[in-house]
Write a structure and sequence with these properties.
heterodimer; A: mainly alpha; disordered C terminus; B: mainly alpha; ABC transporter involved in vitamin B12 uptake, BtuC; globular
Amino acid sequence: MRFVLSSIGMVLILALTFAAFGLDVGKSLALVAQGAFDPAYGWPTTLTRATPLCLTALGVAVAWRAGTYNIGGEGQYLVGALAAAACAAGLGGASPALWAPVLLLGGVAGGAAWASLATWAWLKRGVQLVVSTILLNFIAVELVAFTVRGPLQEPTHARPMTAALPNSAMLLQLVRGTSLHTGVFVALVAVVAVWVFVAYTRQGLVLRIVGANPRLARTERLPVSKSQFLAMAISGGLCGLAGAVEFSGVTGRLSDGFSQNWGFLAIPVALLGGLEPLWVGVSALYFGALFAGTENLTRYTPIGNTVVPVVQATAVLAFLGLGKLMQRIRRPVEEPA
Amino acid sequence: MTEVVDILRFAAPIGLAATGETIGQKAGVLNVGLEGMMLAGSYAAVIASGASGNPWLGFGAGMVAGAALGLVQALFTLKLAADQVVAGTAVNLLAMGLTSALFRLQFGTSGKLLSVPTLPKFAGGLDLVLIGGLLAAAAGAWVLAKTKFGLALRACGEYPSAAQAAGFSVTKIRLIAALAGAIAAGAAGAYLSLGISGSFAENMTAGRGFIALAMVTFGRWRPVWVAVATLFVGAADWAQFSVWAQNPALPPQAWRALPYVLALVVLVCAGRGVAAPAALAAPFQEEA
């Protein structure tokens, strides 16, 4: 039910957006549908785009459930990819079987470390996460820009990018002629793992209490700071993993335009999934399809996927508004003022 | 002397946005959508200035764009009492998507430089916005500190129930404060495009709105200190354009990262304070 309603809502918002921009709605929607669901290349592209979105959105969901507003997924994603690239440079002649796990773990470590900088500044020095994580995003962008022109630049030093990963080290391609790779399974495993962690472990329970009611958590002498630190580290780790997966699954190189703003666009994905890991997975699939679809749109109009944030923002605001309206309708019955 | 004016010019967008945001935060409204409002201001200003040939009309359009987004955000945060970080993030996305999409529709993705009439300057590089902005900031500080309305506004940020008990409408006062901040953000964006770059590029605000948020914290929520704090970041922003040219010892990326690093380091050093309004970012639902 929720699924059907939200699908209809999404298509409606998309159609309205196209109409607002004065585009041919039918033609635009058809192109989007083709780009997202065409059996030969649509579906694989949808899944490829959904992979980093899903991982970063899971990261956002874990942090926000704990009441730690991590809006630095973008920076953690970049540092994760950077760490993976550094690992790749260090591995040299190691056996090919080692590469993927080392790269992915490197990404997790990089992302977690970057997020922990912000958590430290918050817990010890009272710097708001909303501000620090965003500032760290911009620093990460420059860090990548510097590294691909300096320490990690490709051997000929001609272009601002790292050397390409050897083919044997890339995550396996699943559908020939598309970029779909085994990273999609990493995302699936992450969905299940985060779901189990949040819903069924002690740490997950503490995290949820800390997020829902920090005062209660303190009076119950729960380890609030520790739980929030952990939530942020997991969050950053997932975003870093996303970066490493994209690096070793799709691009194979690091360069200036490495991120398509995945870390930032993941926030509405997580919000529309209600910060519930399983729904976040579904939500990532939606927006993966939207990305794949709107890329196809560039054949008709230069707008392309700039339309995605517009749709996301409208969907989040609609979601917020509807939720609040429902609350208002229900409230008089529940608690007469 | 020209250096001082240059630094002032580079500090102005962040300074305008941060002073406006101080007023909002004093009333308990955290405006995470600040960056989006600046971006919308930049875009609207360039389009209106280009279409009318009058940069002041453009500047006005920038303020209107900021106010329009401010109203959208206020509808959610104040009227519906939605989470201020969520609503602000949505507003940022909206501005980012809309300005990029519209810009591409109008000018394609060729990336050609668009040149529109810019704000006129006096001798020495000063212009009306710089002087007006300083005056407006001073006036804002005075209203906050010395008037009855300012007291009520601060009460809304510290202890809204008390403000309501004293007969003030918390929602109305917060709306006024939020709109003042949104208009200032729009003006800040307009100054960035019409006063400094003379053009628009996708995501041209490049995080200045978030730096402005950081500066409010750094300035301990006092308008004058906030203004001084932004001068500091303005100097760093200016340095990346001018000093870098003569000093290639540091890589350009380090210069570009400098304002962000400085803002972060400064916040860490400033440490936890009790200066933050107690009810900052806490939704308030008026009893019917």
